[in-house]
TrEMBL record:
CDD domains: PBP2_GcdR_TrpI_HvrB_AmpR_like (cd08432). One of its GO terms (molecular function) is sequence-specific DNA binding. The keyword Transferase does not apply. It comes from the Bacteria. It comes from Cellvibrio polysaccharolyticus. It holds the Pfam family LysR_substrate. InterPro entries: LysR-type_TF_proteobact-type (IPR058163), LysR_HTH_N (IPR000847), LysR_subst-bd (IPR005119), WH-like_DNA-bd_sf (IPR036388), WH_DNA-bd_sf (IPR036390). Residues 5-62 form the HTH lysR-type domain. This is LysR family transcriptional regulator. Keywords: DNA-binding, Transcription, Transcription regulation.
Length: 305
């Protein structure tokens, strides 16, 4: 048995069966009538039986032809649908974004619906990881990194410089002592980052000698976990303002002291120089910068109120 399926001959068969004419089938397929007749002969020789009856009115399906014609029409319809799906996948554009979990969960992901509404033909794939991504090896289009913006061999776009603010649950603050200075925060449990360094650096930035108690307390790997613990009333968290924005606006958290510390690190969107000019990357960068501008304005309004 010949394992090769004669797709062209089968396509010719379905076109003749649909139109009842060799000439019309040739026109539909964009080939000559002679080529259609040749393919039909090859198919009938292959199966060893006639598939049409030649009549004065045209080509009529034989009994064998009538049995297989509906199935072949359905099969070619499925093949057409598959090709359309493949072409649709090719025409869609996908961006892979790598970000630290805190920024992704607290800031980026809640806003991605706006990007999708503006650019419905661009799919976004978000990877949230504390591991530093290799853009080339990992297939990452844009990495959102927190640092000084110096990444050899890569292109970086400045996004924003978050500030560290102390936040806590309003319920916790109502049951404790008033906070009028940085030292007053020590009356509450201090929720720590993984290095136990943020509170110490915050006190130093305010010109205060860091007390030993500022490095004690429960430890969490990222701002998202710190925020959840603060919302649960477990203590005061020192977090990036952009991570706390949603909780501050909803009233789940309250900024306990209006002495934010602006650190020297910033968020950058990092891309490969060869891929940076891609339209979808430029669309995303323009969108995220616009969102950041709106977010910063909203933070200032929340603090003022």
């Amino acid at each position: 048995m010949n394992p090769v399926i004669p797709l062209l001959a089968l396509r010719v068969f379905t076109e003749i069966g649909r139109s009842g004419s060799v000439r019309q089938a040739a026109h539909a397929l964009g080939v000559s009538a002679g080529a259609v007749s040749q393919q039909l002969r090859l198919l009938e020789d292959r199966v060893g039986m006639p598939l049409f009856q030649r009549t004065r009115s045209g080509m009529e399906l034989s009994e064998a032809g009538k049995l297989v014609y509906p199935e072949l029409v359905q099969a070619f319809g499925q093949l057409t649908a598959v090709m359309e799906k493949l072409e649709g996948i090719k025409n869609r554009r996908t961006l892979t974004i790598n970000s630290e979990p805190g920024f992704a969960a607290s800031w980026l992901v809640p806003r991605l619906g706006k990007f999708n509404a503006r650019f419905p033909d661009i799919d976004i794939r978000v990877e949230a990881s504390l591991r530093l991504a290799d853009l080339q090896r990992d297939g990452v289009d844009i990495a959102i990194r927190h640092g000084l913006g110096k990444y050899p061999g890569l292109h970086s776009d400045y996004l924003l410089s978050p500030v560290m603010i102390p936040v806590a649950s309003p319920t916790l603050l109502r049951t404790g002592t008033a906070i009028n200075s940085a030292e007053d925060c020590l009356a509450y449990p201090l929720l720590q980052d993984s290095t136990r360094s943020d509170w110490r650096l915050w006190f130093e930035a305010l010109g205060i000698s860091p007390p030993p108690a500022c490095e004690k307390g429960m430890v969490f790997d990222d701002d998202f976990l710190l925020l959840r613990a603060a919302e649960a009333g477990q203590g005061i968290a020192l977090v990036h303002d952009i991570h706390a924005q949603s909780a501050l606006e909803s009233g789940r958290l309250q900024q306990v002291l209006q002495t934010p510390w602006s650190n020297r690190f910033a968020y950058y969107a990092v891309t490969r120089p060869t891929s940076a000019p891609r339209a979808e990357i430029q669309y995303f960068l323009a969108w995220i910068k616009d969102e950041i501008q709106q977010s910063e304005a909203s933070i200032m309004e929340t603090v003022d109120n």
